[in-house]
Amino acid sequence: MKKNLYSFAGNMVAGSTGLRPRLVALAVVLLGTTAACTTTTTQHLTDTHPVTHNSSPSSMSELRIADSALDSGNIDVAKTIYDQIVQADPHSVAGLTGLGNTLYAVGDFTRAGVYYQRASQLDATNTAPLIGIARVAIHQRRFDDAISTYRQVLTLTPGDALASAGLGAALDLSGDHAGAQAALRAALKTNPGDPVLSSNLGLSLILGGNPREGANVLLDVTRYPAAPPQARQDLALAYGLLGNTEAAAEILARDLPKASVQDNLQYYEIQRKRLQQQPVSSISPAKVAAVQAQPVQAASLR
């Protein structure tokens, strides 16, 4: 779906080191056990698009209608059509994947995973259900499973931007920022200028303790009018950690109400003070230590 399915929104992440108040988890981020704040700032882009699928000519029209309904948020209509497709053909990989997508969209990740697994068992080379499986794994905080599945997808479709974005998000959530950045940079060589990959790279750099470089990456993304709100909010996060509160507030005000802007600014200040209290010997001039993550709104794994 074109909405953040990871949303990977709600608070999904909490448990490792990193930083980002907007991705339910990643999609931003690293599950850190900090108190929940009302900020809605960061989130790994990993699932802003629905998982697509291959289908036979006989059911393509129904699938197009169902996919369109899902994209527009008409979950009940989409589910009804996918149900009809599966009833007519219990082995329809596209229909089973579609049912998984409808359940994923309403947050029923366990049942969504069942349908994705059934679809994948019918066609192990179809990447659509595999991506669904990986997204569910991230929501359930099974990051190693998600990483393994995304790598499986990339073996089948090298350089795939959607899978690469998801892999980067999963690695970030697991605390492997260096691995996430390597995966995202490699994907950008194949998909130069991809805004989702670039946004996730910028966020990963911030989470890994390098907000200045992250800001530089995000500036290239946000200079376009159609830049996703997540990229702007991640840029605000970088500015906030660097102490440029005025710039952070100006960016946040484009997408958030005044109260949420203030919540985010307070969060940045808390994190900035925490960094300043760390021993000087532990912080290099060009890099600050990774910031504890806060529960993040599920980012879209693309």
What structural class is derived from the secondary structure elements?
mainly alpha
List the domain count as a whole number.
3
Judging by the overall fold, what is the CATH architecture of the largest domain?
Alpha Horseshoe
CA radius of gyration is 19 Å
Separation of the first and last Cα atoms:
10 Å
Approximately how much beta-strand content do the residues carry?
Answer: under 5%
CATH C-level class of the largest domain: Mainly Alpha
Shape: elongated
Q: Mean pLDDT across all residues, rounded?
A: 80
| Number of DSSP helical runs | 13
Task: Indicate the CATH topology of the largest domain.
Answer: Serine Threonine Protein Phosphatase 5, Tetratricopeptide repeat
Series of H and E elements: HHHHHHHHHHHHH
Largest sheet: none
Number of E-state strands: 0
The fourth-level CATH homologous superfamily of the largest domain is Tetratricopeptide repeat domain
Uncertain residue segments: 1-41, 280-302
Approximate helicity band: 55-70%
Detailed description of the structure:
This protein is mainly α and 302 residues long. The chain folds into three domains: 59-139, Tetratricopeptide repeat domain (Serine Threonine Protein Phosphatase 5, Tetratricopeptide repeat), CATH 1.25.40.10; 141-191, Serine Threonine Protein Phosphatase 5, Tetratricopeptide repeat; 193-278, Tetratricopeptide repeat domain (Serine Threonine Protein Phosphatase 5, Tetratricopeptide repeat, Alpha Horseshoe), CATH 1.25.40.10. Helices cover 57% and strands 0% of the residues. The N and C termini lie close together (10 Å). InterPro entries: CellSynth/LPSAsmb/PSIAsmb, TPR-like_helical_dom_sf, TPR_rpt. This is TPR repeat-containing protein. Keywords: Repeat, TPR repeat. TPR repeats lie at residues 127-160.
